[in-house]
Amino acid sequence: MAQLTSIHRFPVKSCRGESVGSAVVEPWGLAGDRRWMVVDDAGAGITAREVNRLVLVHPEITDGGLRITAPDLPALEVPTPDPARQVPVAIWSSTLTAAAAGAEADAWISKALGVAARLVHLDDPTRRPTSPAFSEPGDLVSFADGYPVLLTTEESLAALNDVVLASADTGRDPLPMTRFRPNVVVSGVEPWAEDDWRRIRIGDAVFRAVKGCARCVLTTIDPDSAVREKEPIRSLAKIRRWDGATWFGINLVPDTYDVTIRVGDEFEVLEAVAPGSGPLRPAP
After folding, report:
1. What DSSP designation does 207 have?
2. Using an 8 Å Cβ cutoff, are 206 and 268 in contact?
3. What is the bridge-based pairing of β-strands 149-153 and 118-121?
4. Architecture of the domain made up of 17-29+131-272
5. Which of 74, 89, 75, 73 is nearest to 121 (CA)?
6. Exposed (0-12), middle (13-18) or buried (19+): which is 103, by Cβ within 10 Å?
7. 161-176 pLDDT tens trace
8. DSSP code per residue over 107-168
9. What are the structural domain ranges in the chain?
10. Model-level pTM?
11. Which pLDDT does position 167 carry in this prediction?
12. Mean pLDDT over residues 58-71, rounded?
């Protein structure tokens, strides 16, 4: 039986994630996922693409906000900011406002990263719509790159690792799924079958598969050391390259809200297109 094998949320964009046994599905993604972001003095989002050390910052959601840790720094408790303290922020083509975490959090994150930075919280996710090119009016997203939920499959990772290990110059370990920062991982399907999915069900939650996920240099950063290497982009370019990009995983938009998904839930494909029809756009 195809099933959900793991669930991941990333409290702060580009920082280390948490594996959880269950999660509530909200219109803008899994509860607690990417509701915080690090920004520069101008309010532009900072990601691990530019500052690799972000992957070493470990945030944990608490009842009152966040607890964040990083190498060689004491842990810091960050209370959920007052929503009245809004500041302008930008992430990719989105411009909106978010609540400022305050001077203590800003000083801590700046020291952890070695660059001037601030921490902000998206108190109201309805401020950010998804890209209209691959979604519908009213679709929303938190501080995730473009869409609310990212799905990957264990079988596709195994197929990719076959290429990675075969082309390795020296012995190396297979790439872990953490390189790809998915929210949900499923198993019991064929490798790359996700290219053809258009509507899926996980437990009681239904999602639209709206776009393949183009992968960037963030996947080449080891989440445990922040060291950058050539994989998996090198191997993806051999087997998963088109439209000038490399592809792994699919972006989902929830059609069912306020339900809980759990590890072990049944996974079902509700709608699919013929193999080879292309993973980038919904079926016409």
Report:
1. E
2. no
3. unpaired
4. Beta Barrel (2.40)
5. 89
6. exposed
7. 999 999 877 678 999 9
8. HHHHHHHTS--EEEE-S-GGG-BPPGGGS-TT-B--SSSSSSEEEEEHHHHHHHHHHHHHT-
9. 17-29+131-272, 33-127
10. 0.95
11. 85
12. 97
